[in-house]
Amino acid sequence: MQSATFTLTPSLRLPKPRRPSASPAVNSRFDPIRVSASSKPHNFNDALSASLPRRSWTLSSSSSDFKLRPWTSVPLVDSDAGTKRFEVRATAETAEESTESGSSLFKTLELGALFGLWFLFNIWFNIYNKQVLKVFPYPVTVTGIQFAVGTVLVLLMWGLNLYKKPRVSGAQLAAILPLAIVHTLGNLFTNMSLGKVAVSFTHTIKASEPFFSVILSAMFLGEIPTPWVVASLIPIVGGVGLASITEVSFNWAGFWSAMASNLTNQSRNVLSKKVMVKKEANMDNITLFSIITVMSFFLLTPVGIFMEGVKFTPAVLQSAGLNVKQLYIRSFIAALCFHAYQQVSYMILQRVSPVTHSVGNCVKRVVVIVSSVLFFRTPVSPINALGTGVALAGVFLYSRVKRIKSKPKSA
């Protein structure tokens, strides 16, 4: 039986409670279907009592028109509450997975773009650099210009707060100095080789860098190579030898300059492990490369003036019958790409493992060799192409077997 509770005021008459129906089939809950099917209620009180189930009401006489305002209500049990909570939780987890997949896709695309820029900057550097060195055979001056442009870019990057300016102590500079020296020599020898032989041959010789890395690491770091690493060096050395024998542009100056570049570049890698540089929060790979670039500029500039003199002025270039504007533009593009590809290389190294970076470097060398052959129309014999392919395959194999660690001997 339903009941209605009211507060009695002098101005209102107490409504009569509804008499319960004699039919046992009547439900205490309000059923709109049943109400619509029944006859009309006898009075307003019956209709009011039928339409307000399970509630208590109070009549307010504060205004001329009284109002019905709910006082209490009986909460209904929601059988779908657990299902709704599960649906909300599942939706949140799906959103998180969607965010993670989107972030992973973005990182993959970003890494792919960096690899593409790395290859593209390398191609442009080698092409424009070779064009400059063919008409301006002063590799020390050319290398100094490249370091000068890199220094300006580094100073702009620090000055405009595009990258945090480091605070370097004197002890750190002393530890970085050997790295700057071998870095300067490595790039200088590379330009000397590019000025003497074809770009494809220089990079074929530079593919033998793993050989020098294994030798220097064993001598100075005590890292004994695994049999797999030693086996991977055989096709590298054999392929470089086969390509050198059949190279049309071969000369000893270009050959030994490229070999010296391999030696100095791998010495830089060994020194970076051997020399204990105090690592701080502001000394990452990009900062280290930036400091080395500035130091290389100050190291090489006086040497270039002493060895080759001041040869890059417009008057000297015009007297030599060169197109000054064209030479300046090509030199600037080569220097810009020189700094850009090394900067991107360090950015990639911060995102991937050294093995993945080595594989990318091998692919980069293949792309540079093929693009230079096509651009400069370098004559390549079948045996020369075979030697280059074998050497590059050995480099790829070396980058893969470097992950195999030798098992320590049990006592």
Automatic annotation (TrEMBL):
Q: Where is this region: Disordered?
A: 1-29
Q: Which SUPFAM superfamilies match?
A: Multidrug resistance efflux transporter EmrE (SSF103481)
GO cellular component labels? chloroplast membrane
Keyword Plastid in record? yes
This protein's record includes keyword Cell membrane = no
**What molecular functions are annotated in GO for this chain?**
organophosphate ester transmembrane transporter activity; phosphoglycerate transmembrane transporter activity
Domain (Sugar phosphate transporter) ranges: 110-399
Judging by the UniProt lineage, the source's domain of life is Eukaryota
Q: What is this protein called?
A: Triose phosphate/phosphate translocator
Species this protein is from: Pyrus ussuriensis x Pyrus communis
Its taxonomic path starts at: Eukaryota, Viridiplantae, Streptophyta, Embryophyta, Tracheophyta
